[in-house]
Amino acid sequence: MALTVTQRELQEPAFDKPVTLYTLENGQGLSVTLSDFGAAVWSLKAPGNDGIKDVTLTYQNPSLYIANPYFFGVTVGRCANRIGKGQFELTGRRYQLTRNDGNNHLHGGAKGLSKRFWDSWSWQVAGKVGVTFVIHSEDGDEGYPGNFKAQVSYSLDEAGDITIDYAAESDADGPINLTNHTYFNLAGSGDVLGQELTLQAGRYIAVDGELIPTGELPAVAGTAMDFLKPKAIGLEIEAVKGGYDHFWVARDHKAADPELIATLRDPKSGRTLELLSTEPGVQFYSGNFLDGAIKGGEGRALIRHGGICLEPHIHPDAINHPGFPSVLVKAHQQYTQRSIYRFSVT
């Protein structure tokens, strides 16, 4: 069967205009539905030994994407993850960003790029179908300097690769660090504690009580943070206060081409997700703040550890840590990232 891309509009009164949804299908059971609100993944269905299931977390009520307390599926930025006290200094000037996570700045701010409509269009080339999203952000938006533009393109091929290509630039120096915030549960329901994770990273970033990096990069060996070999997510999670919400360091710099950084496998269904990225590391978050209070797709409760995030990007709070890879992008220079989500069945 051929690759296809289809488009429809969702009339939801809570939004100030219709939401455009695109569905990419590879003709072999893999499909991903994307939204122009937040340049987001709204659904991702993958085949397994138990049939085809949605392997991402979604809201039963689409209007919840407006507030989106869990950042389901969205593109986050201008700067992903946390910035301590929402502050950084640049050329002698201190910038104060929106504080939307206690004392700190998280995922681009209260609205950021994830809670806005993006311009969008679908396309098809030999061997791929895709959708491109574009957004502009004015100087001072959420406290960031410069007029900013970002472009995010999703593509799907017949083999089962979903590729996300990011490009962004600003007319002023400033931090740029984008990622996608999809939650995965390869079983399609229940929790993820029995699913096996491998992270190609020998170090992680230590954090304080507010999850802000201390600057230390301990080795994972001999600790509950060691995922160098496949390990059930729940095996040692109780040894980590609050659960996993840390950044694993795969390398000290961005790579020229995507390299394998994480593998997630559900032993029962055989579904396997490999994450390849140009980024130096990945934030692994084990869904610690999900509490069952909100209903997900098909009315399922969004229970604690009901899904995990694997967010490839540059180190969190890097703008305040000279020893980390830099997130500072000079005016009119381009930021790029490529990440590949590769699905298969074993």
UniProtKB/TrEMBL annotation:
Beta-D-galactose binds at residues 81-82, 181-183, 245. Its EC number is 5.1.3.3. Pathway: Carbohydrate metabolism; hexose metabolism. The keyword Transit peptide does not apply. It catalyses: alpha-D-glucose = beta-D-glucose. The active site is at residues 181, 311. Keywords: Carbohydrate metabolism, Isomerase. GO terms for biological process: galactose catabolic process via UDP-galactose, Leloir pathway; glucose metabolic process. PANTHER family: ALDOSE-1-EPIMERASE, GALACTOSE MUTAROTASE. Belongs to the aldose epimerase family. NCBIfam families: PRK11055.1. This is Aldose 1-epimerase. It comes from Gallaecimonas pentaromativorans.
